[in-house]
Amino acid sequence: MENIGNLHGVSHGHQTSDLMNSQHARQSSSHRNLVSHGRSAMVSSMASILEGAGDYRTDHSLSGPLHPAMTMSCDSGMSLSSTYTTLTPLQHLPPISTVSDKFHHHPHPHAHHHPAHQRLSSGNVSGSFTLMRDDRSLASMSNLYGHYPKDMSGMGQSLSPLSNGLGSLHNSQQSLGAYGPGAHLSNDKMLSSGGFESHAAMLSRNEEHMARGLGGHGNGLMTSLNGMHHHSHPHSQANGAMLSVDRDRQTVGGGQGGAGSGQVEEINTKEVAQRITAELKRYSIPQAIFAQRILCRSQGTLSDLLRNPKPWSKLKSGRETFRRMWKWLQEPEFQRMSALRLAGE
DNA sequence: TCGAAGTCAATATG
DNA sequence: CATATTGACTTCGA
Length: 345
Known about the structure:
transcription regulation; mainly alpha; DNA-binding; 0% strand; transcription; CUT_dom; disordered N terminus; 65% helix
């Protein structure tokens, strides 16, 4: 018994418990927290620069009825949830010490994470990080992850949406298109339904492009703007208009969304799966990496999800996984990368 | 108690 | 090496 119990509990335990799974207690490592750290750090940096920091963050909060923990959460799940709460305030001020504090109170057996985020924090704070500078981000990424950037350089250069990334993206999407508008399914409310889907893609892509294209502030502004302005309504913040669109529909469709706590996003799992697959290929990110760092799942699981995505309606706790993927897709490239890097570091 | 959903780890395959 | 498949396990709801 114990063996098994231990094995399971300790060996794998990472799962986060998502919302309902509650499998927490798995092994994991704990470094997942790093991600959150990294993120907050980044946010802060942005915030500092833009001043809209709070807003930016807000956006997360808003969009995140789900994201709260998801964004980073992988292992500690519950603990994190609380952490996340704490994080909110943190975001406003990125005092490293504070951060450390929060972390510390976590049972962190591993030390190597700390250094990692520390350095990040400092970087951000000092501003050297300047997320805006895609160059920088890229550079950093390159350092950490040689291959990711490989395509990016190309993409980055071409502002034209169709040139690179989009081109391929479109491809995939087009294939999806069949089910998109045609909608033999019930995608009426799907996150990416029909034409809108392409828009979404474009938008998100644009973000990335802008990031590098506009250079610094441009991107930041956008992001923050998107996220900020209307904090009044909990709809649409994440990154873009697209979201708002879907959100609206979803809200309506879902109806009970609930007050906030339950985001009623309906995600087109099939599409997300395709997009993720495409992105992973684009950046040469192995499933194993993405699965672990972003989804906190195993490679096999990811593979299965990507190949045989179940319809949103049939998903239960598995939705969380798709939300994470979706979330990731919505993030600006540099964030995606940093998430990958950080989580893995 | 049973079945479904989700995962994982191991293993097979390309 | 990366991805696909599979068997076993856990959790959850009837």
